[in-house]
Amino acid sequence: MTDGPPVEGPDAGRVRAKSVVVVNTGEGKGKSTAAFGIVLRASAREWKIAVVQFLKSGKWHVGEQEAARGLGVDWWSIGEGFTWDSADLSEDEAVAREAWARAKALIAAGEHRLVVLDEVTYPMNWGWIDAGAVVDTIRSRPEQVNVVATGRDAPEVLVDAADTVTEMVNVKHAFDHGVRALRGIDY
Question: Would you call 129 helix, strand, or coil by DSSP?
């Protein structure tokens, strides 16, 4: 607890970066939602933006996708869903590899100022896509390309490569009390 409102602001940044890497991780809710807030900000600056979703399939009909496409965001829901819903994990792995191939090409091409890798940590941690290759791609990206990666348990190599890392902490969650995901709030 502080003694009152701050009387001095934080130190001003001294470096103007061409781009940054942001990682939203942790057990709490809001990792993708925070990334989509960055999409909204970048859209207001008229940036070319791409989102690649590694787990959420087109069947989810996420609200952010509809809104973002209306803003001109290139959006690919390439995933097959969470593994606990899977009928064939080898197919899911192949789809994750396809999603990574798309994302890698988008980053390397340098046409998008912002590329969001939504839920990329899951296939990285499962060994479906190589974490080192993801980090190598991020580190060798064109200088104007910003990258946001989301998902639980971000691998250490990804955290080390990032400029900003936020860990979401779960304090309380409706799911823990049997409340199902609510369209418009959760997706």
Answer: coil
Torsions phi, psi for 138 (to 5 deg)? -65, -45
Cα–Cα–Cα angle for 102, 108, 114, rounded to 5 degrees: 80
Burial pattern 59-79, b for ≥16 Cβ within 10 A else e, equals ebebebbeebeeeebebbbbb
Q: What is the DSSP letter of 57?
A: B
Contact 147, 42 (CB under 8 A): no
Sign (positive or negative) of CA dihedral 172, 151, 41, 165: positive
Among 94, 40, 105, 44, smallest CA distance to 67 is for 40
Predicted pLDDT of residue 83: 58
CA proximity to 115, closest of 49, 162, 61, 161: 49
Tokens of 71: 């803003």
Which residue type does 66 have? Answer: E
Cβ–Cβ < 8 Å for 44, 18: no
| Distance from C-alpha of 144 to C-alpha of 111, rounded to nearest angstrom | 9
Neighbours of 10 (CB within 10 A): 6
Which portions of the chain are predicted below pLDDT 70? 1-2, 57-61, 79-86, 187
